[in-house]
């Protein structure tokens, strides 16, 4: 009597060296189980996987031989895309609308009973007087978005501070 043994899709890729294409050629999973962390886990009959692996042994060996090179290439591509996003964030156009005289009182109301600090004022002006959020959305789905956010934030802050200095407003007085 044979007891059914199953292997998850991820374990199959790790254990047998399957690629995503080989898994799709294997066909539909034998059953799907809900997983609280990942959504669903796909399970395949171990005997069917073993037969398939034997039939495609040369392809699997070729996949395993190419995998380190592909991983290195993928790593370089990720680094390049991250660097492109960072460079883009350093040159992306940020626009500052004229800062109205009522901006300081509006910022005080916005933050309510808490004291208006330099950082809070910059936050308020960054959100209300610049295209910072729209520019940030352009970077949101790109590799390096977190770094781009910090760069865009600092650029917007420097832009606002320079504009306020030109108007004769000192942020240390806030």
Give a description of the structure:
The protein is elongated, with a radius of gyration of 27 Å. Helices cover 63% and strands 9% of the residues. It has helices spanning 9-16, 20-26, 46-55, 57-91, 103-110, 118-129, 132-139, 145-166; strands at residues 6-8, 31-35, 39-45. The protein is mainly α and 174 residues long. The longest helix has 35 residues, at 57-91. The chain has a 3-stranded antiparallel beta sheet. It has 2 domains: 6-55, no CATH class; 78-173, no CATH class. Helix 5 crosses helix 6 (118-129) and helix 7 (132-139) packs antiparallel against helix 8 (145-166). A hairpin with a 3-residue loop joins strand 2 (31-35) and strand 3.
Task: Name a few traits of the molecule.
174 residues; 2 domains; 8 helices; 3 strands
Task: Give me the secondary-structure topology.
Elements: E1 6-8, H1 9-16, H2 20-26, E2 31-35, E3 39-45, H3 46-55, H4 57-91, H5 103-110, H6 118-129, H7 132-139, H8 145-166
Antiparallel strand pairs: 1-3, 2-3
Helix pairs in contact: 4-8, 5-6, 6-8, 7-8
